[in-house]
Design goal:
429 residues, 13 helices, Adenylosuccinate Synthetase, Chain A, domain 3, alpha/beta, Adenylosuccinate Synthetase, subunit A, domain 2, Adenylosuccinate Synthetase, Chain A, domain 1
Amino acid sequence: MANTVIVGTQWGDEGKGKIVDLLAEYSDYVVRFQGGNNAGHTMVVDGEQFVSHLVPSGIIRGNTCIIGNGMVVDPEVLINEIDYLKDKGVDVSPQRLKISEKAHLIMPYHKGLDHAREAYNKKKQIGTTGRGIGPCYEDKAARRGIRFIDMLDPEFEEKARLIAEEKNFFLEHFYKCDPVDINDMIAGFRAHRERLAPHVSDISVIIDQVLRNGKRVLFEGAQGTHLDIDHGTYPYVTSSNTVSGNACSGSGVGPKKIDRITGIVKAYTTRVGKGPFPTELFDETGDFMQEKGAEFGATTGRRRRCGWIDAVMLGNAVRLNSLTGFAVTKLDVLGGLENLKICTGYKYRGKLIEHFPTGLDVLAGCEPVYETLPGWKEDISGVSSYQELPENTKRYLDRIEQLTETPVEIISVGPGRDQTIMLNNPFRQ
């Protein structure tokens, strides 16, 4: 298997965790390169469910996993996740889980500010998870962040105290919220440092050596292309770059090291939180997708909005990520629908738009142009080969390939590892 980047092509929740777990079989290392615990990956192994928010999905396979410098990490959440995985018999030792010394720490005041802002801007809420992700990335850009390497420094406490005093001023005097107890925060980080210090490394050097030794690396993204801070539906986006290019800057490798880029696409479209969604359904078909697909966020538990697949959006993801192939997930959910629709363009003020618009107001005003295909009644969750799929299922997949000019390489027909069809498996090389 060549070195591969996995990215979401929609608004996240595409099923990346399962695909990373699957492809980890053909990898030696798995690196997550952006985001924080505002994303969740769910994997089902032998009927048992595993949920991770920070630790890369490959940990279930026994891979060496790396938390990249492009991530922001809540140390308390990470420690709880390590303990959760240990209790399930997963090896999460410092030899198996490494943390970039350059990754930024989510502090208690980041979470306080996140909640305070959403409460203050009730009419213009972004719909954040409230986990401090955005404020942490803000401090990173403002050069006011605290990294893991800082936590190991003897002057950490002085630096953290100084920044916390500034944040408390805003919490108390602008947002009229309770301040962070700085002494409790410092005491907590002393304990975090003791637990996490053995995991902290210069991961760029580690990955470089791994690649020099001919090992295979899988780069795991979180969220989806259209939540990218630059290329997504701004401002209803996350606070990091979710596109494939960030696999390099978020882990410390050069672009020549990347061989394949696989985009994960759900067989329909979902979105959590606010923001425009041209193909969203408000009828019984949307309810059918939500209920059959169990569309609730792994991190927040929020109900996901559902709609038809959008080839305009997928074409945008193909271009932004240089996708070499698709993994289509939750295809089984569509079984039972008489007809299926694929959005092939948008109408805006009487004009046809064939490319995903940048302007939020334009996208919000777009009316989807649909192509209708016949559905299938069969339950495909037990199908193990492409040949066994109903003809209408094959037509649906073929049309996605044609519209996006990108091959489908993986088909998921259920949450289990064995409910996956690999087409001309390019990863077993």
